[in-house]
């Protein structure tokens, strides 16, 4: 959770602001669809420049939406604890403060 967040509605605002960018939303949807992944695999599926992807992943980490796990030299990203993903006739992210559903 971002250190500047003190109220639940603040966390919601930070997370929604991070997801307002189409590239970051695509990264989250990639993790929702494909599960945890390494930067290379995420980059391959989205076709982004490596430095641009790293920037967006940093913003998503700071918003508490994704978590990074170092595995040797590689970094594996996944949806953060508290960001629940559900698939029932579509995809849905439960951010705790609200739910985003994708058709």
What is the total tally of β strands? 6
Radius of gyration: 13 Å
How far the N terminus sits from the C terminus, by CA atoms, comes to 28 Å
As a percent range, the share of helical residues equals 40-55%
Name the beta content range.
25-35%
Largest sheet: 3 strands, antiparallel
**Count of helix runs:** 4
Structural class, from helix and strand content? Answer: alpha+beta
Shape: globular
Report on the architecture of this protein.
There is one protein chain. This protein has 103 residues and is of the alpha+beta class. It has a 3-stranded antiparallel β-sheet with strand order 1-3-2. It has helices at residues 8-19, 22-34, 39-46, 50-62, and strands spanning 37-38, 66-71, 74-79, 84-87, 91-94, 99-102. Helix 2 packs across helix 4 (50-62). The chain is 45% helix and 25% strand. The longest helix has 13 residues, at 22-34.
Concise overview:
With 103 residues, the chain is α+β, with helices and mostly antiparallel strands.
């Amino acid at each position: 959770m971002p250190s500047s967040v003190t109220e639940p509605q603040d966390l919601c605002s930070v997370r929604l602001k991070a997801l307002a960018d189409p590239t970051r939303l695509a990264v989250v949807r990639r993790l929702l669809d494909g599960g945890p992944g390494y930067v290379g695999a995420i980059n391959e599926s989205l076709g982004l420049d490596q430095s641009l992807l790293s920037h967006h992943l940093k913003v998503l980490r700071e918003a508490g939406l994704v978590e990074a796990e170092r595995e040797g030299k590689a970094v594996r990203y996944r949806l953060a604890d508290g960001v629940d993903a559900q698939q029932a006739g579509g995809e849905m992210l439960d951010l705790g403060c609200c739910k985003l559903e994708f058709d």
